[in-house]
TrEMBL record:
Family: Belongs to the aTrm56 family.
Name the UniProt record assigns to this protein: tRNA (cytidine(56)-2'-O)-methyltransferase
Free-text function comment from the UniProt entry: Specifically catalyzes the AdoMet-dependent 2'-O-ribose methylation of cytidine at position 56 in tRNAs.
Keyword Electron transport: no
Chief location of this protein within or outside the cell: cytoplasm
Length: 180
């Protein structure tokens, strides 16, 4: 299943940390790509650097707006999930969502345009109390992939080895650094 996260409402001066965390969760929990509706080249470069160092095929890019991205996605046969605390409970919609071939997950910020509710195939509530969009995305992706995403091997330059007591991290040199 192809999964793309579309982040809307990003305000560079205010939301860079939360949007960065949306991207980190998207990557670590199995999404293929994050599209940032708006421009923040520094944030995009930072997430691309994480993918380069830690491995995997996760991509990040900016787009001028969300409408064109959502329309293109639907036009290519993709389905759209909008994460909102006002939606159908996740437990009632996750099986149907899993049957979709490709899913765009829309994660909003402060105020989501009403059109999002109309364009989405599913408006999904991960709980119906105020909470973080980062937490909602993590829970959604974990349920979507039934926990399998946590066992992925990213094969990057940096690798953490599980340990009950100690921090074990291996950092490999880039192949193009040479012995210089």
């Amino acid at each position: 299943m192809r999964v793309v996260v579309l982040r809307l409402g990003h305000r560079p001066e205010r939301d860079k940390r939360v949007t960065t965390h949306v991207g980190l969760v998207a990557r670590a929990f199995g999404a293929d790509e994050m599209i940032l509706a708006g421009r923040d080249d520094k944030l995009v470069e930072g997430l691309q650097d994480v993918s380069k160092r830690w491995g995997g095929d996760f991509r990040v890019r900016s787009a001028d707006g969300w409408k064109g991205e959502a329309r293109r996605w639907k036009g290519s046969g993709g389905r759209i999930v909008h994460l909102t605390m006002y939606g159908t409970p996740l437990s009632e919609s996750i099986d149907e969502i899993r049957s979709a071939g490709s899913v765009m997950v829309i994660v909003g910020a402060e105020k989501v345009p009403p059109e999002i509710y109309d364009i989405a195939d599913w408006n999904v509530g991960v709980g119906n109390q105020p909470h973080s969009e980062v937490a909602a995305l993590a829970i959604f992706l974990d349920r979507l992939f039934m926990g399998q995403e946590l066992g992925r091997n990213f094969q990057g330059r940096i690798e953490v080895f599980p340990s009950p007591r100690y921090k074990t991290v291996i950092e490999r040199r880039d192949e193009d650094e040479g012995d210089g």
